[in-house]
Amino acid sequence: MKCSYAFKTLLASALYFCIQQTAFAGEWAFFPQSARGSDECSAEFTGTIMKGDLTGAYLNGRLSSFNRICLDSPGGNLMEVYEFIQLFENVAPDSDDPYIFSTRVRSGDKCLSACAILFMFGQNYGANSPYPDRVLDPNAQLGFHSPFIDPVAARQVDSSSAFAGAVSIANLLASRTYKQVTTRGAALAPELLSIILGTPPDDMYIVRHLAELSILDISTSPLGEQSVVLRFERPVIETTLKRICASSHVLSNRNWFVTDGYDFADLIRFSREIASDENIETLQLVHRTETRIGYAPDTVVAVLTGPYFVPGWFSAGASLYCMVEMNGQVDQNVMKVSNYNVNFGYMNRYSGGIPEAEDGFNGPSFGLVPIDTIYE
After folding, report:
1. SS3 content of the chain, % helix, strand, coil (to 5)
2. Could you count the other beta carbons within 10 Å of the beta carbon of residue 69?
3. In whole angstroms, what is the distance from residue 114 CA to residue 213 CA?
4. Pick from 206, 9, 10: which is nearest to 113 by CA?
5. Pairing between strand 101-105 and 134-136?
6. Alpha-carbon dihedral of residues 85, 88, 90, 94, nearest 10 degrees?
7. Is the preceding omega at residue 93 within 30 degrees of 0, hence cis?
8. Which of 43, 93, 369, 372 sits in a 20 to 30 Å window from 223, CA-based?
9. Same domain, 216 and 233
10. Does residue 175 sit in the same domain as residue 201?
């Protein structure tokens, strides 16, 4: 049975995310294309999210297709965020020009509670296919926690109905982890729901590690691991390669490297343990030099073996090798890394040398910097 409009209004006013500071009313600012500057935002929302703040801007025609919305908000009305997301998702399939928005939190700004949920629904289109498009700048705050029922408004809504509203929001988040697929996989990582529901309403989970931003598919500006400089000495390079393989292996199989539900601290611990394992062996380490204009002139390719395995397999066939390819430029005994890729393959198929990338399988590439690196 569908809820009446009056009931929805009461429920929307009851279901909030906690705001831990003085609230101020939400306001929109809109920027013409000529005045957007480098932040690319065509619209900006600041302040507390209240009933009608988001849906009203869309229904009144203030938001056009493919807006990038900058956010600076302590949170507010979660049902308003829910109705806004439902509004454009219901319109999009029947529209020749569907409304899509991407999101950004700029340096020095914050996006907490309900705002953080809105931020995570940012996406864009490339080659007619959706992909997550949410950008967090350095020194910006992104924080999550579970919703709570406003005790004043809840007097007019029975507890079972308020609970149903909270469940509908959880269901929306859960469905995005398996129902909506983008060019980079699920629209939302399953870890997000665990972070939200696992954080009490009076607490705040601030996402601050580069690796966790990678897990949640949040883009950083500038790129978090861009242009790392390493001493071009074998011990330094091998230590970096071990860290890359360990971090990439753990992030690729992160559901196996947690002890009781998602906990990023577990991933940090296991990555460190694997990277320091004495059984790691470097099977190949090759430095190639290219002369192509416009490309990184130097490439380091390595194959490592040791504590890498297929989770859940209990046979010799579970053993994997890790192949890393780092591209960059070597100058005066230092290497400036521009990009790198990680492949894993089965040891029982390894015949020596540097295998073709097609012989293995890709996962998340991380570890050029330590997995506990803070994004700032």
Report:
1. 35, 30, 35
2. 20
3. 18
4. 206
5. parallel
6. -160
7. no
8. 43
9. no
10. yes
**Over the stretch 279-308, which tens digit does the pLDDT of each residue have?**
999 999 999 998 666 677 899 999 999 999
Q: Which residues contact 278 (CB under 8 A, 6 or more apart)?
A: none
Number of domains in the chain: 2
Q: How many CB atoms lie within 10 A of CB 307?
A: 21
Asked if residue 165 belongs to a domain, the reply is yes
Instruction: State pLDDT tens for residues 135-183.
Output: 999 999 999 998 876 655 544 445 555 566 677 778 888 888 877 677 6
For residue 2, what is the DSSP state?
A: P
Say whether pLDDT at 50 is over 50.
Answer: yes
The domain in which residue 277 lies consists of: 229-362
Distance (Å) of CA 264 to CA 67, 180, 252, 254, 271? 32, 25, 13, 9, 11
Other beta carbons within 10 angstroms of residue 231's beta carbon come to: 12
Strands 334-346 and 228-231: antiparallel
Please name the amino acid found at residue 281: E
Per residue in 57-108, pLDDT tens?
Answer: 988 888 876 789 999 999 998 889 988 988 876 655 445 555 678 999 999 9
Cα–Cα distance between 112 and 75 in angstroms, integer?
5
Is the N-terminal amide bond of 132 cis, ω within 30° of 0? Answer: no
Q: Are residues 43 and 138 in the same domain?
A: yes
Q: Of 129, 131, 164, 134, give the one whose Cα is nearest residue 147.
A: 164
Beta carbons of 375 and 344 less than 8 angstroms apart = no
Phi, psi of 27 (to 5 degrees): -135, 145
Q: Which residues pair with 284 in a beta bridge?
A: 303
- Residue 292 Cα distances to 187, 295, 297, 299, angstroms: 37, 6, 7, 12
User: Domain holding 182: CATH number?
Assistant: 3.90.226.10
Calculate Rg over the CA atoms of the chain: 23
Same domain, 190 and 116: yes
